[in-house]
Amino acid sequence: MTENVELTVLCLLHRDNQYLLQDRIKKDWQGYTLPGGHIEPGESIVDAVVREMQEETGLTVLDPKLCGVKQFPIEGGRYIVFLFTATEYTGDLVSSAEGAMHWVDKDKLHTVNTVNDLDELLQVMLDEKLNEFQYVIEDKKWVAVLK
To answer: Where are the beta strands (DSSP E) in the chain?
Structure first.
């Protein structure tokens, strides 16, 4: 049996003690989060993360590393997000129509309005023992499961 799948990427770009976050304005996932977006038909996953970062931040990431997967159910299928980290980049930081870009100190994350699951995302992306962030529906509630 097959299912419909929507493929996307997110990237955690970090330097020194800071993360590059986007103050996302779309109502479906509003708040400070990681930049990224959809993989285009026929596009490689690595090329997609480089393209999306360039489009949304103005920066070209040079060393994207796959570090996990996030997934959740959607009508008729599944939404899959390939999670990347990077530390090397070129270019000048800009914002996009998706939202303003900000370097945020790691120890000040609690002072900005982050998306509701940024903590879990970062946990999966930074903990070498974790690979997956999956939302499952239990008793009509979405539950985050980290593996």
So the answer is: 4-15, 18-24, 31-33, 36-38, 59-61, 65-74, 77-86, 89-91, 99-105, 132-138, 141-146
